[in-house]
Task: structure prediction
Amino acid sequence: MSLAPLVLFTYNRPELLKKTVEALSKNYLASQTDLFVFSDAPKKDESPQNVFAVREFIKTISGFKSLSVVERKENYGLAKSVISGVSEVLKDSGKVIVLEDDLISSPNFLNFVNACLDKYENEKSVFSVASYTYHLEIPQDYNYDNYFTPRCESLGWGTWFDRWEKVDWDVKDILSFLNSKISRKKFSEGGEDLIDMLVKQMSGKLDSWAVRWCYAHYKNNALCSYPVISKIVHIGVDKMGTNVKKEEKLLDTKLDDSGKISFTLIEKPFVNGSILLQYKKYFKRNLLKKLKREVEILLLKRRLQ
Result:
């Protein structure tokens, strides 16, 4: 099994970054993994002190097969940083593992993601592999270490070049999508919040690479592989470009402490109905939010027509 390079995106949170790197350095495969760090530049109206602190720390990182650092000269923002950085590394490597600077990984994180990338490389219905999972009640007779959903995950994930290049980052078909109730229902199979975020993205109220990546999964009838036990815990406050302070407890999960380095992975990807129902409960929207969404959809359609 050839190991995928690890890409780490960072900005202005040196203390969180240190915790992320410390956990990564304890991964069983760290010394065999090439690490790429992308450091975004400060915004024009922002003090550069924390960004400088981040860049000083990056110079001290050790314990990996190699370290490559890209220091942006202008502020990209998270979405552009991830899209451009992942694209750059994938052109040379063909596959990649991606992290942001507010994630703690289990020691077998790299083992699991690499195993999934290797297992599903030629399974074109799988667009990405995740290392994070919500706390779910897995059926007692379930014998696999992973499960599938139609939704991608942004908290520690991996993919391949031939899947990533299929994304239309401009979402050119947004109007026809919004006009189709069938399409909207299908996209919502990954969670009722996805349309909310996509509409905000296309209305200029959100700058998210992840919701567009999820939309690419939907457009290609693709799936994402998740671990039964999470290899990632979240220690920051932002997810998919949206503030989640009020929903912070929803991200709580148990970090894998088993030490396993070999996994029983599903041979032919399929969606387990009972697991998907549990997964989707984290993204339920109440009536008020649904009504607000419909108003935003109407306004966006008027603007696009």
